[in-house]
Amino acid sequence: MTALTDARVLITGGAGFIGSTIADQLLHEGVSEVILLDNLVRGSLTNIEAALRDPRVRFVEGDIRNRSLLASLMAGTDVVFHQAALRITHCADAPREGFEVMATGTFNVIEEALAANVRKLVAASSASIYGMAEVFPTDEAHHPYDNRTFYGAAKLFLEGILRSFNDVAGLDYIALRYFNVYGPRMDIHGAYTEVLVRWMERLAAGSPPLILGDGLQTMDFVYVDDVARANVLAAKSDASDRVYNVATGVETSVRQLADALAAVMGGTGAPEYGPERKVNAASTRRLAATEAASRDLGFRHDRRALRRPQPPRHLVAGSDRHLPQPSP
């Protein structure tokens, strides 16, 4: 394991849901400086208010499409956490912008990291590359040919470029395939997390959750603190040129989730049902194999996390009840 003590760190998407949580955890690792790069399209200054009180943290408003900015920030950097990305729905609606950010922007990050001799790059990939997997639990060796989303294709491009630069330039990297991340600061417009927030709003207004599809779709939810910890472990690990699932290995149906949320918020009545989403509707099941990350990185999710999150206080004033742990 490589300590992060006195390391200078850059986080792209640093004001985002996951990036800001990584920043919080890095401050307990003895780093010397954390630079948060974000264009605030998805990120928020509210997410980093606490981190910015630490003199080691610096926020830079900017875009990964700006190569000169990246070059200036990479100079003297030891570790890069590449978290910047568009939403899966944004990529579907605006594929050219998706290409500019997810492909060209990602290439810029990798190229400038190499030019600056960055010690290690930890990159956010996604379970989206599997599409509708053929094997469950799904491990990292599963093929990517069932992906049918631009977002998933862009994440596969990310992994391919990382491998290529490992071979030709010795790039030290790890890519982490996130499954369904949830928790404080979650992106309320994300394809998966948005549904939780919309349900909370409906329940707070006295209406039942609206399920898109039949409710039998499943997800593998993983708490954001665990995802951030997986990133820190990856940066400290001797492992390189590898990809890992970051998940819990617990399968939860959309209907189970709606029932659990209704129980927390005191909702009554059966859920309502609507048409399936157009984006990624074919991927109806998610369940990750997590052995590789456990073996190589020492990553295990906190089993208490599935009980930990609460609905936002503005929706459930005074509530101290937690979401129950879903059944596998």
Structure overview:
- The chain is α/β, with parallel strands linked by helices and 328 residues long.
- The chain contains 9 helices and 13 strands.
- It has a 7-stranded parallel beta sheet with strand order 3-2-1-4-5-6-11, with helices on both faces. Strands 7-10 form a two-stranded parallel sheet. A two-stranded parallel sheet has the order 8-13.
- Helix 1 (17-26) links the parallel strand 1 (8-12) and strand 2.
- It is globular.
- Mean pLDDT is 90; it is low at 307-328.
Helix-strand layout with pairing:
Layout: E1 8-12, H1 17-26, E2 33-38, E3 57-61, H2 67-74, E4 79-82, H3 88-93, H4 95-115, E5 120-126, H5 150-169, E6 173-178, E7 180-182, H6 193-204, E8 210-212, E9 218-219, E10 221-223, H7 224-236, E11 242-246, E12 252-253, H8 254-265, E13 272-274, H9 291-297
Helix pairs in contact: 1-7, 2-4, 4-5, 6-8
Notable features of this structure?
seven-stranded parallel sheet; alpha/beta; two-stranded parallel ribbon; single chain; disordered C terminus; globular; 328 residues
